[in-house]
Design brief:
With 427 residues, the protein is of the alpha+beta class. It has seven helices and 27 strands. Helix 4 packs antiparallel against helix 5.
Length: 427
Amino acid sequence: MNTLTFNRRTLLAAALLGALIAGLAGYGLALWRQSVTADVNGLAGPIVGTVDMASANGLDSRKPLYWYDPMKPDARFDKPGKSPFMDMDLVPRYAEDATAGGVKIDPRLTQSLGFRLASVTREVVASSFDAVGTLGLNERDVAIVQSRAAGFVEKVYARAPGDVVLAGAPLVDLLVPEWAGAQQEFLAVRAYAEDTLAAAARQRLLLLGMPEMLVREVERSGRAQPVMTITSPIGGVIQELMVRSGMSLGAGMTLARINGLATVWLEVAVPEVQAALANPGSSVKARFAAYPGEVFEGRVKAVLPETVRETRTLRLRIELPNPAGKLKAGLYATATIVGAGEAALVVPSEAVIRTGQRAVVFVAGEKPGQFSPVTVELGREVGDKLVVIKGLTAGQQVVASGQFLIDSEASMAGMVARSAASQETPK
């Protein structure tokens, strides 16, 4: 029985000792928090806020407009007291704070808190962007070789689809019996008739489809030339060759299709959000994995009128010179499209706070340490800067670093950013 009494006394003493230690620890923690709040970097007072320590202690002689709960700033009260929402005292709002429309920071603390300002500047912004695409042949540089009269294929030169030929290269020897009789009549009239009849007979040869060069050869040699060599009208690649030796041909029958190689088309895909930046005539610099270190310059020839529905992209047709024939259809390329520059207001990208529904920047006020939230309308991003369409003017100072601390305090104080619609940027 004595042992049981001793154990109860021991447990009671231990419990009292634990309660005493907990009370001392809580008192020490409270003193530590008070000392930290009272001295930040050796400076008394709050870091960020809209009220100073004197007003918090009831020593401010200014007349408050109203009182509010920092945790629910939209609720206002006409007298001080305890908040009905939280177990805390209401905070006064003064006329000076209301007219300022922003957040106050002790100017001596801006460096220690990492605040950095940047200027709103007007710069010439180049509308350049990158896109990828593949090379193709220039479909405007195409020649169709046809038979001008009915005849027979005497010879096909060693050609095949895919061969590259020069302008004037022979393709086919064609025998045209009809031309042989007409040429004999022309030579007879030329020998025995007057010049008027000879000129009429010569014109008849041209109307039968004979090329001028062949008629001159008949005049020079004095003999009929029933076999005509059809040549390539341009230099390029043979895409189609629809003739073989011994074939009989009708007038107007297609013999070959030749695509020129002096220029090639680079077709790139551009997201529809960049459609306004893509204009015919813009200069282009293209780079190919096949030719590292080389840059091929060209221009945008056309913006095709249809959008690719699956990828929501526009197609740009870029024409690149190809004098050496190095560029081959099917090559993959990365192109930089550079448009004409235009003057615009820009701010650092890091100065903008995006909330999902709007974009906000904090503008420095006339007095040191004052900052006001302003809603802005943004344009495109250029490097590490953003184009501002509405909301700011050139020369204003905005917070580029540490603005999230100001934004947090402004939200607690119930401040609403000024709308960009009320501050249209001057042109």
